[in-house]
Amino acid sequence: MENKILVSVVMLTYNHEKFIAKAIDHVLSQNVDFTYELIIGEDCSTDRTREICIDYQKKYPQLIKLILHPVNQGLIKNYVSLMQSAVGKYIAVCAGDDYWCDDLKLQKQVNLMEVHPECTMCFTNAYEEYDDMQNGKQRDVFSNIENKEYDFDDVYKATIPASSVLFKNHLLDFTFLLKRAYYAEDVVMQLKLAELGPAMGISDITMAYVRHKGAIMNLLCTDREKKFKNSVSYSLMMNEEFEGRYQSMFYVRISELYYLYAKGEYKRGFRLSSLKYLFFAMKYDLVNTIKLLGRSIIK
Questions:
Q1: Domain holding 211: CATH number?
Q2: Buried b (16+ CB within 10 A) or exposed e, 202-224
């Protein structure tokens, strides 16, 4: 059976009791002309997530595989274990608190990848939904992705919805993620794939990214200073990962992060602190920082 599976769908989940059933249902509802599997990595949740996953696996034993970690592994180790379990020609990702809103998502992506065997991955647009965020919004349209080929630079500059990605299996040894303190896997994984070949964008909206209080990125973004430091650290780790091959690109991004933080400090009345962060912005990329200052003056 394993050699007939064309797509392995991997789903990470932890404390997603409120969302996991919807995520699974929308994977199961995919309208395709090929065989696929759903592998769920349940990371020792403290709510009913594991119970729900087990119930689904009992109903669909031929389609759903469960990895039930006896102790919490954390996002990265859970992700790596899922990748190592995937047997399909392609791997599609869906977080346990997101869901696919297009029943043809997998079929569209596989059709595109089969026509473009030179490509390593493809991705789509998404909705961004809000759950218990107290900001009055219910849904935004995320429309950054175009119908075109993306190179490494394009992938780095784009904001790619993680649960929209489908990519070729067996291109990467995902244990590289364990060698550094990555708090998220998506961006560095996308860049690793983009270095190996072009990617394809699909402008269709095929998934919904659900923002809620327990989401990993929301937890990382609640503290302004911590969010800033995490972003700088992530860019520095990626520069190390790629052994400086794209240092100028990463340093431009770091200079922007320092500049924006300096700007925020200035608005809050912390003038000396603002100068300190502006100095670091110039240290990483003087020309880019001057450009940013120029745009600010013009505005």
A1: 3.90.550.10
A2: bebbbbbbbbeebbeeeeeeeee
Closest CA to 64 of 74, 53, 75: 53
Residue 1 has pLDDT above 50, yes or no: no
CA distance 204 to 220: 29
State yes or no: pLDDT of 132 exceeds 70.
no
The three-class DSSP label of residue 105 is helix
d(C-alpha 137, C-alpha 107), whole Å: 31
Q: How far apart are CA 108 and CA 206, in angstroms?
A: 10
| Domain closes at, from 219, 249, 269 | 219
The per-residue pLDDT for 129 is 87
The lowest-confidence range among 80-84, 178-182, 204-208 is 178-182
**φ, ψ for residue 218 (rounded to 5)?**
-70, -40
